[in-house]
Amino acid sequence: MATITATITVSLTTPTRRSLTNSVNLRYLLFNSHSKFATLQRSFKSHKTRIAVSSSLSIDVPVKTAPPSFLDRIDTTFLHFAKYHGLGNDFVLIDNRDIIEPKISPEKAVQLCDRNFGVGADGVIFVLPGFNGTDYTMRIFNSDGSEPEMCGNGVRCFVKFVCQLENLHGRHSFTIHTGAGLIVPEILEDGNVRVDMGEPILKASDVPTKLPPNKDHAVVKSELDVDGIMWNVTCVSMGNPHCVTFSGKGFENLFVDELKLAEIGPNFEHHEMFPARTNTEFVQVLSDSHLKIRVWERGAGETLACGTGACATVVAAVLEGCAERNCTVDLPGGPLQIEWREKDNHVYMTGSAELVYYGSLPL
Fold first, then answer.
1. Which end of the chain is more exposed for a tag (fewer CB within 10 A), N or C?
2. In this predicted model, what pLDDT tens digit does every residue of 163-181 receive, in sequence order?
3. CA distances from residue 128 to 104, 139, 140, 176, 178 in whole angstroms, order as listed
């Protein structure tokens, strides 16, 4: 048993004063480290009245230990993530710097990407430790669970996420190990990201495609029969395979908004001429420095933007003689600036990447 003296200074309404003189709210009891009882003093201030109430109570209050809440277990049972998009091409980003394998399986990635029963995304991207001297490693699972070599829009989101993780501000560049090799992105002063995507791969067997090469080991404006329609295609790899088409038999210019991509796209992706499947870009030439495209992505379907697809499109346009080396490429989600530099043969992509939100999900 113990005696507790409570001194309360308060300015309250008359009914509250009356109730306060009869009892002391024991929810304000404080316990020090030496005893399970303590002296409670609370002061409530007002511009008018100050009253003092003393109460001598003999009580025995048991010490209770609250059971752990789910918040106490959040670090071990929840997956923390950030949602980013690059021109509407959206991704779940996961901080994976502490281990070398992705924290979730491809099957779990499919669940996360589901737009009705999950977060909703075109893919899940993991920020892993660097490899062979690089700053970081990037891996990605598509919405169907497949793993592409890399992703152009995804790498811009990747870099923005890294800057958030490392609390970096201003201009920074990084070396990123990917399945397509070394990628070097740089955050610019305006917040956009410029990415050195490396050299395009044109050799047919390396794209890969089974179409016979027709120009210096490359496939340039070659005919491809897709369900009875003859398309003219150029094949380019930006570390992942692309089939780019500007025209076909009976139509010299595409109007991409009129295409039924959900019907056409899968037939390109799974065509027997592409042993690793393919991404496909349907291109409308607006001028020699302005292109408009829609993309059917391998493993994700039609997306609002595809960075590697925009790069492959400019390379193909130069090879076919219908565009310059520096182009604005309009995608449904917005524009990218693509340059295929003659002096180093590298393709440079510049565009935005934006944070949508942070979240946590039970594993």
1. N
2. 999 999 999 999 999 999 9
3. 13, 8, 11, 10, 10
